[in-house]
Amino acid sequence: DQQVKQNSPSLSVQEGRISILNCDYTNSMFDYFLWYKKYPAEGPTFLISISSIKDKNEDGRFTVFLNKSAKHLSLHIVPSQPGDSAVYFCAASGLLRGSQGNLIFGKGTKLSVKP
Amino acid sequence: GAGVSQSPSNKVTEKGKDVELRCDPISGHTALYWYRQSLGQGLEFLIYFQGNSAPDKSGLPSDRFSAERTGGSVSTLTIQRTQQEDSAVYLCASSRQGPYNEQFFGPGTRLTVL
User: CA–CA separation, A113 vs A96, rounded Å?
Assistant: First the structure.
């Protein structure tokens, strides 16, 4: 059973518009959430994170929203740029619950930003 | 400084053979993780090393999989008697000690078992 779910395998957005990537989780013990971006033939690179004590974290064009009651988080990219085209992975961890910090990943969403 | 490096970048092997995958973490990072990504799947946690503590092997899929970390630095993931379902991209990540530290990933090793 998947603990972190990204139900949209792909998303296509026009340049300049907003990209919204969604992620759902089932384990209420998760308290730290991250988004990674992956280009082909490269390892994932960290994008942005959020702790469960917050409901929003913003870094430039990237904002992550966390809705704990719904066990849902989303990544907003605005404005979207063609260079944002990549696979985006949502990941979760139960750091405050004594876990080792290993991440549980979703299957990823492939974002295509069209010029 | 250099990032996480992995070798080889690609490995093709025959079913039943043993393979070794290598990871060089970022210097000074005490935590090291192995993940794998099978086709169409997310990244799956395999094993975690933290300093001199016993590794967390809870993600290893079978006893054919093992990993070592020598001298607190380089790590080797060994898969014995490879099977076709072992075909995947194997990713290594390292981070500084403690929670909330970003994991830096290497480029991965693409393993194909024929």
Answer: 36
pLDDT in tens, A12-24: 999 999 999 999 9
Q: For residue A49, which residues of chain B lie inside 8 Å, CB to CB?
A: 100, 102
Q: Look at residues B89, B86, B55, B91 and name the one whose alpha carbon lies nearest to residue B70.
A: B55
* Interchain contact A45–B (C-beta under 8 A): yes
Q: What is the rounded CA–CA span in Å between residue B109 and residue B92? A: 9
* A20 and B CB contact within 8 Å: no
Is A43 in contact with B100 (Cβ distance < 8 A)?
A: no
Residues B62-104: tens digit of each pLDDT = 999 999 998 879 999 999 999 999 999 999 999 887 656 788 9
